């Protein structure tokens, strides 16, 4: 099995419209912008798409870390793609890519399509409790003539998302000619070799030096406390950094933290009993402590129980409890021990 950095994050969105669905032509007025929301029965749950969350993540990495390089985007007719160069561009490595191209060799067309499944996977950010968005009315009246009315929606909720980073996949590239496995072409191998990449066997992945892989994993995690992004920030400024986060390194790709947030009487809460069951069930899979970070002022009612967990010596694994920034920093410093040397 492969070690995965897994996490559950809660984002406080008290007056927000972070991801819009655009205009709704079925509304009574033409000039209304709706937020994204899904329905479960009669209840509505605002959400931010997984793609939007990834975009905040990718943009923050580029702006906040000098060494991080995002790939340029190229466009041909109706398709767009990155450079598919995971040695030069960190985001091609961590966020994956697909580049579908072909060239003519004589009278035959040669397929040059390469794909890379993203080592970083994440869910959408979905409200932990039902919330009906509010319609806000505004008017543009600075111009001459009649004012122009408009509407937009916003909400007040806590958004939950989960993510997973495959630590062994970062900096490792296959060139097996199978769908989903052809990350690079044979012609790209010299570039990996020039970067210090090695291969343990003929069909094994090419692996970049450990220091490059560790840096990319650490910076991907370290971007969370400085994450920024979202729509309508000029009038609904929202801090999208996690206010509560639960992290660990797990042997395997499943995500046992997925159901820790439960809804009771239309209120979302962290289930301590669910967390304890996960700890018992996956005790032999945890490769590190479980790190829980909470911002003071957010879900303060959890403080006593989380402190008690952190001080409990009978649990099968250690619980570390501090602020989100502190626990992210602690685990980031230990990631090197979970990322092996290239064999």
Fold and architecture overview:
This protein has 343 residues and is of the alpha+beta class. It has one domain. The protein has seven helices and 23 strands. It has helices at 50-64, 90-95, 189-194, 210-222, 272-281, 303-311, 324-334; strands at residues 3-16, 20-23, 32-35, 37-40, 43-48, 74-76, 79-81, 97-99, 102-105, 108-111, 114-116, 120-122, 125-127, 134-140, 148-166, 172-173, 198-199, 206-207, 244-251, 261-264, 267-270, 290-294, 319-322. Strands 1, 2, 3, 4, 5, 12, 13, 14, 15, 19, 22 and 23 form a twelve-stranded mixed β-sheet that branches. Helix 4 packs antiparallel against helix 7. The protein starts with a strand and ends in a 9-residue tail after the last helix.
Descriptive key words:
7 helices; alpha+beta; globular; 343 residues; 12-stranded mixed sheet; 20% helix; 3-stranded antiparallel sheet
User: What is the structural class?
Assistant: alpha+beta
> Would you list the SSEs in sequence order as H and E?
EEEEEHEEHEEEEEEEEEHEEHEEEHEHEH
Low-confidence stretches: none
Number of helices: 7
Number of strands: 23
Rg over CA atoms, rounded to whole Å, is 23 Å
Counting structural domains, the number is 1
Mean pLDDT: 90
Shape by Cα distribution: globular
Strand residues, percent: 25-35%
What kind of sheet is the major sheet? Answer: 12 strands, mixed
Distance between the termini: 16 Å
Helix content: 10-25%
